[in-house]
Amino acid sequence: MITKGREILMLKKLLKEFKDFAMKGNVIDMAVGVIIGAAFGKVVTAVIDIFLQPLLDSLPKLEAGGTGFAGSVLSFLGVLVEFILTALVLFAIIKAVNAAKQIGKKPEAPKEKPRTCPFCCTEIAKEATRCPHCTSELPKYEPKKA
Ligand SMILES: [Zn+2]
Q1: 3-state SS string over 71-127?
Q2: How far is CA 1 from the centre of its chain?
Q3: pLDDT of 17 strictly over 80
Q4: What would the mean pLDDT of 12-27 be, rounded to a whole number?
Q5: What burial class does residue 124 get, using C-beta atoms within 10 Å of its C-beta: 0-12 exposed, 13-18 middle, 19+ buried?
Q6: Gap from CA of 130 to ligand 1 centroid (Å)
Q7: Which range among 6-10, 21-25, 56-60, 122-126 shows the weakest confidence by mean pLDDT?
Q8: Is the pLDDT assigned to residue 9 strictly greater than 80?
Q9: Could you tell me the residue ranges of all domains in the chain?
Q10: How remote is the CA of residue 134 from the centroid of ligand 1, in Å?
């Protein structure tokens, strides 16, 4: 009877650990990523089929390679071309998405250089009248105009 109680306790602990694991944000994020990735693969394939397949078809048939070493090399080249095209399409889509993200975003103002002490060259507060590092008296701060 004692062992049974222990087993139940262990099972409960295991369940709790599993719940903690499954409910962690990164597991769910990962699952979403995998699912979106799978769907995204279809988009990429569709783009290749629609826009690039005609182009590929006009090239000498690579996949048609017969048997033997030459055929293997040719089919490998076909796979390679497909991979490069997939990467290119992916790159184009990511570029487009990034460009879309920028729309409506204000261009970031160029950051003002931090003020430095003219005597010891360490960073200091803009309003400081005395350097906290070398204790030199500082001239009045005037922001540089860009
Ligand atoms: Zn200083």
Answers
A1: HHHHHHHHHHHHHHHHHHHHHHHHHHHHHHHHCCCCCCCCCCCCCECCCCCCECCCC
A2: 54
A3: yes
A4: 81
A5: buried
A6: 8
A7: 56-60
A8: yes
A9: 2-101, 112-141
A10: 4
Span from the CA of 116 to the centroid of ligand 1 (angstroms): 8
Q: Hey, what are 146's tokens?
A: 């860009």
Q: How far is the CA of 125 from the centre of ligand 1 (A)?
A: 11
Q: How far is the CA of 90 from the centre of ligand 1 (A)?
A: 52
**115 C-alpha to center of ligand 1: Å?**
11
CB atoms within 10 A of CB 85: 18
- 42-98 confidence digits (pLDDT tens): 877 787 778 767 766 666 654 555 567 776 777 777 778 778 877 887 788 888 888
Out of 1.10.1740.10, 2.60.40.10, 1.10.1200.120, 3.90.1170.30, the CATH code matching 2-101 is: 1.10.1200.120
SS3 (DSSP) at 35: helix
